[in-house]
Amino acid sequence: MVGVIVADLWFGRQIQIATIKTVLSHIRNMFIGVRVGFRYRMRFAYAHFPVSVTVEDREVAIRNFLGEKYVRRVNVLGDTIAKRTENNVTKDELTLEGNDINDVSQTAAAIHGACLVKRKDIRKFLDGIYVSAKENIVEE
Predict the structure, then answer these.
(1) 85-36-5 Cα angle (round to 5)
(2) Is it the case that residue 74 has pLDDT exceeding 90?
């Protein structure tokens, strides 16, 4: 068989079978990442204070979140490319692209986690940066 990865496990327990399936999922994601890549689109949501996001080298800086002076900085993991979308295309959008889904999704999660509202009613304060789309870079 050419081009096929086969994993055999005889008389395996549940945890061993789960481990094999996890490894196969990682390998499948690597193939998809190299072939078409991964793109996460994140949108900024704010009610009163406009959120300012800048990409500097390997770091995303979030300013004026809920009107605070504190600058939140999030490192971009691995070979992930972070860039702002032009305002004439889509306003208030950040795009993360890369071949490794783990790095892209962890960067998106770190950006989202840096903008969580603390000590306020989250039903009222819906401000934050949220993942709006998960897609492939190259459309098949």
Answers:
(1) 150
(2) yes
Record the tokens describing residue 100, joined without a space: 């490794």
Distance of CA 45 to the CA centre of its chain: 16
Q: Which residues, other chains included, contact 138 with Cβ-Cβ below 8 Å and sequence gap of 6+?
A: 35, 36, 37
Q: Which two tokens stand for residue 88?
A: 């004439």
In whole angstroms, give the CA distance from residue 127 to residue 118.
11
Q: Residue 137 burial by CB count (10 A; 0-12/13-18/19+): exposed, middle or buried?
A: middle
C-alpha distances in Å from residue 7, one per residue of 12, 29, 47, 104, 105: 12, 16, 51, 27, 27
Tell me: pLDDT of 53 over 90. Answer: yes
Helix (H) or strand (E) holding 48: none
Structure tokens of 32? Answer: 């998809």
**Residue (of 105, 101, 112) closest to 53 by Cα position:** 112
Q: Given this model, what pLDDT does residue 6 score?
A: 87
What is residue 1's predicted lDDT score, i.e. its pLDDT?
57
**For residue 35, what are the CA distances in angstroms to 103, 137, 138?**
16, 9, 8
